[in-house]
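Researcher: Let's run the pair from yesterday's discussion. Sequence first, then tokens, for each.
Model: Starting with the first of the pair.
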Amino acid sequence: MNAKNKTLIAIAAGVGVAGLAYALWPKKKIPKSAIVQPFDKDRYMGLWNEIARLPNIIEKNLKDLTENYSLNEDGSIKVITRAYHTQKNKVVEAEGTAKFVGAPTIGQLKVAYFLPVYLDYNVLDIDEDYRYALVAGSGLDYLWILSRDEDIPNDISTRFLQKATSLGFDVGQMEWMNGVKII
């Protein structure tokens, strides 16, 4: 391959990467003031069920999604995500790593399933017993409601949806997972 072809390939690859980065880059960022403080990382550890989410390409064809968080010796967090893939007709699992952006008393993290690409993970609200959580990416495209159980009290879901709406999320687009009951 001659130098001209190598240059053209490099330019095309660069344009492709830039286009992908632009498409994934949030148009409106979550304000830092919306992120939970104080945050107790030890109480956040354990199994969470996905109750609702904004539709996204990452979770297309997935249902019954759970995330299990545990502390690593280096202070990072191991994340095991499991879900049933409806197209593949099987359970799929991914292991990732989360780390705090700043102090571990602020619910602002980054998570990577494919190193070194880290995505924002912001805890926007959590109940006092750490049973229910509202989590978002860095912008308005990713939003999840998580629960330790497979249901959620109506007052908590209402609170979470009101907070998300106040931040600009289109909660009317939320997908509620199969079997979820609001109690």
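Model: Moving on to the second of the pair.
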Amino acid sequence: MTPLSVLKAIALPLLPAGIILPYLAVAQTDADRNFQNRCTVTGVVKCLGLDNTASGVTLMGGAKFDNAVKASGTASMRVDIAPSAGESPGNLTTKLGADFGEGRSLYLQWRQRFSPEMIDIDLGGEGFKQFVIYDGTPCGPNMEVAMLNQDFGGFPILYSACGSSYLRKSLGSGNYALMWNQDGTICSSQNKAGCLRYKADQWMTFYYEQKIGAWGQPNSVVRVSMAEENQPLKTFIDFSDYTFKSDQTTSAYRDIWVGPFSLGRTANDAYPMAQTWIDEVIISTQPIADPFEAGTGLRERMSARNPGGPKIHSSVSGSRITISLPPSDQPAGIAIYDNRGRRVRNDAATGGQVVEWDASAEGTGVYLVKVRIGGRDFIRKVSILQ
């Protein structure tokens, strides 16, 4: 009889070409099922579990599989950044699984973990990138989008067009927004207190979304979100009028680099050893579920750690958000924010009350619902689809 500890492929529905699922143990964990559920929905063109070479993944440089530290499955990709390492200590590169040019939407989600040294210690060069998407060769022609911890500031920024166009907005007087958050705070070049920062020693979630309207025209959408471990995603970059540059109208993003790269870094014995881990890379033409939202399995486990909280959900078809408050003699406060951090609803309620809000006047999108009751805060992200 085959021992239960032996890993084997499990029966799965037929998947689109290019999707790579990890080998899973007979007894799957919640995290395994969560990842599998996000991989097997319509639109996913590539799904990388980064478990082993059998998954079809080739790691470059010093990157290696780590069986001890992983978000799900049996392993993750680990990159050790030694003092002697150069610009590219390790990564994976792969085709996106589809061409993403004019009129096409790209959704990229991954999990990443950082050692404390990766966050705000100067390790040399411009600061380590997390991903680069490009066409064949980075920066040609004008084809590159990258996200990085610029100058080791401790938070992510995004640029396109090979570093000539940064995703930020002017605030006047030489000040500009580096990121703008759902809670209304602004991380600016003159005040970085509102930045959503990287967190060490936990599996963070990152989510990049883009839809190119037309090359060279201010009609493209770019949205970037991130989350601490066991927390819902929080959007910190949101453009509906971004201009993607390309020298050719037939261009499309076709390739991706995932892993640390710090332009200009040279070996230096003064640098400390640093590490980063990457897991659960998903590429899709359709939105990818938040790992910690309803229907993915992990949100329910989170709720079990906070019993007695409100039930917050949106209608499957329609524009209503419903908040069902638990029985309590404590007053409750309800605030709803849109994805630009603007508060669109602010109500007082009582325990046991069911509060509904019709979002039709605001439109489709992602909303943040914050309920404060009995001195405790409960926060959920919900989506209005139509």
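Researcher: Give me one sentence on the second I can quote.
Model: Residues 193 and 329 are 36 Å apart (CA to CA).
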